[in-house]
């Protein structure tokens, strides 16, 4: 599974937890640079995770728009793993179930 994380400068701990949850491709955009506003969701991305306490409202809106265009699920969370753990686990289960169904068809 693949995830794009938007927000936060250093997400090493979050990356480790995401890998434990089943995400093997993790892309990151800090949201600090002006060029980060030109969000491009990588192909075959399964989930966009926006860390709301590290991005502004305008970047959040851009992320929403891009995820709709790419038909990728988007979730919003604080940077704390405790806050995002259930959200991420539910999304991982939903994505893996969908992939299993797709492979059976």
UniProtKB/TrEMBL annotation:
It comes from the Bacteria. InterPro entries: UCP020408. Belongs to the UPF0751 family. This is Dihydroorotate dehydrogenase.
């Amino acid at each position: 599974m693949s995830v794009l994380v938007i927000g936060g400068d250093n997400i090493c701990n979050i990356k480790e937890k995401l890998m434990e949850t089943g995400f093997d491709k993790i892309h990151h955009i800090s949201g600090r640079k002006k060029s980060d506003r030109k969000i491009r969701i990588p192909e075959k991305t399964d989930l966009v995770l926006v860390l709301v306490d590290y991005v502004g409202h305008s970047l959040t809106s851009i992320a929403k728009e891009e995820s709709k265009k790419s038909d990728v699920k988007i979730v919003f969370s604080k940077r704390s793993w405790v806050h995002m753990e259930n959200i991420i686990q539910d999304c991982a289960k939903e994505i893996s179930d969908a992939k299993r169904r797709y492979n059976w068809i």
